[in-house]
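Convert to structure. Protein one:
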Amino acid sequence: MKNFFKKLKDFAEKKDVKFSLKRYGIDAMSAMAQGLFASLLIGTIINTIGTQLNIEILKTVGTYAMGAAGVAMAISIGYALKAPQLVLFSLAAVGAAANSLGGAGGPLAVFVIAILAAEIGKLVSKETKIDIIVTPAVTIIFGVALATLIAPAIGAAASAIGNAIMWATELQPFLMGVIISVLVGIALTLPISSAAICAALSLTGLAGGAAVAGCCAQMVGFAVASFKENKFAGVVSQGIGTSMLQMSNIIKNFKIWIPAIIASAITGPIATCIFKLQMNGPAISSGMGTCGMVGPIGVYSGWVNDIANGAKETITLFDWLGLTLICIVLPAIIAWAISKLLRKINWIKDGDMKLEL
């Protein structure tokens, strides 16, 4: 029996099937977020522009891009797991099925099922003389069957968790505003995907607004706090790109994270309690912050949808003031002030936040 398990382990290693937290929790999830960005998110942005400018072709393009979300996520996950070509291409059908059957928790269903289908497909890949038939057949049959069996349950569970978070936020907007803003913001800077987490839990409404606040605080916060070292190149790369660039510096001195975290702890409850900032656009936008200005655009697209559905009469000056303060102005001021204080007490030294740009 011991010899059998050794052979099984050796075979799995030969096929590059390795079970690890980094592989699935970081690499696969980060890739899934890119797939979501390249389909649902960019499609929503294009569709919103088309709707506002009344350009039908843009609305059509956006709709098709949004519809490809399941396929894009699954293929992105397969790519991160280094799936062979036939497995990679076969994941398109698996992703479409998992996303559709997963309902509101479609992204989480795709995440789980695409990983399993990709690894199974890798195990059978090139093991027969009719690989062109066997590999896609096994990958698709296994993946779609798995989607049929468990995707609805995964979707229901993710939806329930997301609903519980949103319910708690409605009940305790101050406390949950702090918690969600800080945790989702931290997730954005860590080498995991805050966007995928928000999409998987379908995090919208007030909770989504708190998540937007936290993510913007991290990106704008680091951009401003590190301006002394990185100048305007740092503002662009972190404020519109990603605060994840600071991860290696955080490992060297975790105190450089304090300004951004405090900013998120302050702006989160301001978003939920004062401005009632809600993310009624795509849930993935809740976890994107100012990356490509996707977070603010998501809030705006939610306003547009609310007006179209009759839930909102018009976009007010107060709405715009809240969005601007929460996403840009307040995190910039708070992070700058806290970083100045920490530099004075020598918790942050010159060069601690230097990036190789």
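Protein two, convert as well:
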Amino acid sequence: MIEINLVPDVKQEFIRAQRVRAQVISWSISFGVIAIGVVVVLAIYVFGIQFGRSAIADSQIDSQYKTLSKTTDLSKLLTVQNQLTKITQLHDASPETSRLFDTLASIIPPEPNNIQISDLTVDNSVGTFSFTGVAPSGYAALETFKKTLQNSEVQYTPATQDGQTAAQPQSVALATNISISNVHYGLDANNNRVLTFSMSFTFAPQLFDNTLGNVHIVIQDIGNNTDSYVGIPKSLFTQTPTSAGGN
């Protein structure tokens, strides 16, 4: 059987072009429908689900607000809770004043050169000790106490940045700017003759720093521990002047 194609080539190209156009239109319609479906789904989510979630959240907020409104002294409770959050910060910044008693026990000489302290004032803002003292044995006890104070150091273990403690301890002078005034003899409650005085000095800030570990007082060796050296002021002794003109 013999088939003869009577359709011209131009007609075949036209039919092929119409077929391609129909496919493109069909695909465009399909993508358009899909896009419209996506837009509809997003619109449902935004205007439906989100609105519902927002309504539920508002309802919960109103419910919680009504519950809190019924709480007695709510403002005081919130203030206390806010202060509780700052306890750690306040604790780190507060001085470790409990070291004061150990410090006094370390720097007060033993009998017979002991002294008695009263009217003690510690000013952490400027770092000073101020107090009134009584020396039962007189000037020797006062001078012994002063020299002990001059040779006292605060030894401590510094903390590193990661919160761990360093291995090697460090030390700093306990007292500077030592001042003694109002020195005079008087009678105590038992009519005993005693020496009274007022003293003030600047203490090392490391003394009450609660971020430091193993803080304690170390008294360095004075070098001459005899009573004649410890109890007598250095101002009584001086070097012999040398002659400027020779013989």
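The longest strand covers residues 175-187. The helical segments are 9-69, 74-84, 87-93, 99-107, 139-150, 227-230.
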